[in-house]
Fold:
Amino acid sequence: MAKVCRHRAGTDIRTRLCSLVGLALGLGFFYVTFAHALPWNDDMYWQPELEAGTAARPPVAGSVPTTGIEPPMSSRLTERIKTGLRVRNPVEPTPQSIQNGEGLFRIYCAMCHGEQGRGDGQMVGKVVPSSDLRAERIRNQKDGYLYATIRSGGLVMPAYQHALSTTERWDLVNYVRHLQQQEAQRDQSQ
Ligand code: HEC
Structure:
């Protein structure tokens, strides 16, 4: 009796194992054959795409950069003066802004205008003329005039429209004003 039972139990386990293996094989077969063809399995594979590096997409018409846009500004002297009357300085001359302007001035401007803005940079006389940014003529100009000159350049002065952000250009204006204030204080104490 016990023998029959053991035998039966053995058959049970084998049958169960067989059906489990069969199920696994069946599922595997189903997966390999059909599952990949289900619509939700390759929805990221089939998609419109461009070969890498084949095309830079132009922005949609009317797109505006997240940093905003500026009205066009000319490098002509009369236009820069007009810009000075029209454009207000939106960046407070905080110590942070002046410090940032100082760092940028050393990189982009000092070679012509000199470390202290006196118009005595290394390139002056050899390659180009320069302006003493502390001169009264420039002190009397509006912030917008300085800004427009930095953005669009002058007759000789290069434009920094593409090299610097709007805020960086205003930081430079604030730093030039800071240099001019130092000069004004020096004039008074003499
Ligand atoms: C290649 C030399 C050169 C460099 C670099 C340069 N400038 Fe000038 N800058 C000039 C010259 C020359 C002028 C005189 C105006 C002109 O070019 O017509 C000038 C004029 C100016 C003026 C207006 C003053 C005026 O004469 O009416 C300002 C403000 C000024 N520069 C600021 C800067 C700042 C800020 C930088 C750096 C971002 C800078 N410049 C970089 C050469 C230079």
The CA atoms of residues 55 and 156 lie 36 Å apart. The chain has a mean pLDDT of 84. The chain is about 50% helix and 0% strand. The first helix runs from residue 2 to 33.
